[in-house]
Amino acid sequence: MRSLKRGEFFGDTNLRDERDGLTFTDTVYTHARVDWHHHEHPYFTYLLAGKLLEKSRRHEHRLTGGSLLFHHWDDTHRNEKPPGYARGFHVEITGEWFDRFGLKADDYRGFHRLADPGVRLRMMELWQIFRRGGSTAERDVELLNVFDALRGAGIREERHNPPWVHRLREILYEDPREQSLTELAASVGVHPVHLSRNFRRHFGYGFSAYRRLIRNHRSALMLRTGNRTLSEVAHHCGYADQSHFIREYKQQFRQLPSQARREVP
């Protein structure tokens, strides 16, 4: 079985930076299939575009743009990439970095898909800091924010949720249409009252806030990785119209979508 060294991933890495216990890479995946392997250090994978299938000994995850995974260093896994373009951002973390901030890598042991849209937004911001050549302090602060968010959201959230929670999360991410709680409850086979009462417990947010975070995360990523018009982004992400998109985006990010697009390196 292959053990990958620090900063090593299967594909064409078009940007890499290594400093103070962290290694950042932006990689275009080129292999249709990658056999079982593990990495030298724990790391995050944030899928910027395309699709991937990640399999560990116990789990299987079908990833699309915006998906976020955390792998411990000894996590053995393999990958499959469907035809087409796929690109990922990786943050590899050494023991030196964990020690510097009083964190224990073993507290995050395992292979986790991080579904919380707030955590995904944090990782997207970290990618932006990396792309524009931000300082070590900026990177440390944002990564610490990610770990703080993980404590709040819980990287173990996927372990104990009932099956309908996983299915509902997939629907909310894959289908941008506005659907009522009654419609969604029917789709996952639970009573609307049960869904309404238990949504915050399983998802960490109220229903409307969760939908809003998903829209904003999806639109922010699309603005930075594609060339769609603002109206196309608004439609794809489930906003009522372009005005709704601009208003909600500005409220979340304190800038206009057009400004965000101009900042792309």
Considering the chains and any ligands shown, give keywords for the structure.
alpha+beta, Jelly Rolls, 11 helices, 45% helix, 265 residues, six-stranded antiparallel beta sheet, Arc Repressor Mutant, subunit A
Question: Can you give a write-up of this model?
Answer:
By secondary structure, the protein is α+β, with helices and mostly antiparallel strands. It folds into three domains: 2-157, Jelly Rolls, CATH 2.60.120; 161-204; 206-265, Orthogonal Bundle (Arc Repressor Mutant, subunit A), CATH 1.10.10.60. It has eleven helices and eleven strands. The strands form two sheets. Strands 2-3-10-5-8-11 form a six-stranded antiparallel β-sheet. A five-stranded mixed β-sheet has the order 1-4-9-6-7, with no helix packed on it. A hairpin with a 3-residue loop joins strand 6 and strand 7 (60-64). It is globular and about 50 Å long. The N and C termini lie far apart (37 Å).
